[in-house]
Fold this sequence. Notes:
single chain; mainly alpha; 72% helix; binds protoporphyrin IX containing FE
Amino acid sequence: MTESPAAATTDPAALLLKRSFAAAVRDPDRFGREFYARVFALAPAVRALFPDDLAHQREKLLRALTVVVRGLDAPESLVPTLRQLGARHVGYGVQAGHYVVVGEALVDTLDARSEQPLDPATRAAWVRLFGWIAAHMLEGAEAADGATRVANNGATAAAPGA
Ligand code: HEM
């Protein structure tokens, strides 16, 4: 089981996350542009996974992050959504290592789009929250990937040592 962010971050950390998110996304379009620019600077090969026009993608990402931040008071209720999101990401060609890049880009964008640099407690809360999001998305991805392998290998999937 993955530890809930609330268990470790406590309520004050949830408040830091909510406040800093609201401050950083006052201009959501600019946030989205800067975020994807950072992702592609860190990992240029990832650009090819996305459509040419990123306008809708920016909106979807911001919406997903908003859902997570609003749900911080009851994080366990987010888990099924995150697992399903992670499972869909397998189909987009996303690999586990990409989550590291996206996490770094996200925290750096939050930092840059805030009026002042994130203080250490807020930054740590974001790193922890992203780790929790990624862990649940990757659980969903693994479950989806395993299901595909079983479907492809049929009876041999259960063979010892396969
Ligand atoms: C915090 C983690 C992430 C969140 C909240 C997130 C959110 C989303 C959302 C909401 C969508 C729209 C489609 C859907 O709902 O299935 C999407 C699509 C996509 N995401 Fe993510 N994502 C995350 C991590 C990643 C990572 C690590 C990558 C790797 C580069 C990635 C690449 C993509 C791609 C390629 C698409 C499909 C674009 C398209 O073909 O339209 N995402 N993501």
